[in-house]
Amino acid sequence: MSTERMAHPAVLVPGARDALTALTRAVEATGVDGTLLALSQLRASQINGCGPCVADGARQAGRHGATADQVHAVAAWRETPWFSDAERAALALTEAVTRLADRSDPVPDRVWDVAAKHFDQAELAALLLNIAVTNLFNRINAPTRQQAGS
User: Fold this and answer.
1) CA 18, 21, 27, 31 torsion-angle sign
2) How far is CA 10 from CA 14, 18, 123, 145, in A?
């Protein structure tokens, strides 16, 4: 097991934790389903290999009503029956936004258009901010070796 390289940067930079907390609360206040946001967080964190965020995403998903099948199978959401069409659209968008450098068209129209069929612009904005905040935390936690459960 690795040890943390430093305290969490959001704690070390004055005002950073409060700003990130405010952004997270703003996303939550939009009314977008908490299960969907947590599954998105969990999937992005799995892709990025962020232990603390995977653990938190799994806890949040369960707290918001995701089934154990959904939590355990989110990495294989395409091959399982436990996700709604809206959840599938959100997970596809999450994967595309998280893997921006993997293709010349980072978020293909087919991914965006399916998401736009399930979510209005305000909901898409909330989902995109959720994905961005998750990726921000992943990119802080991984290099500083933040530990799940600490």
Assistant:
1) negative
2) 8, 9, 26, 14
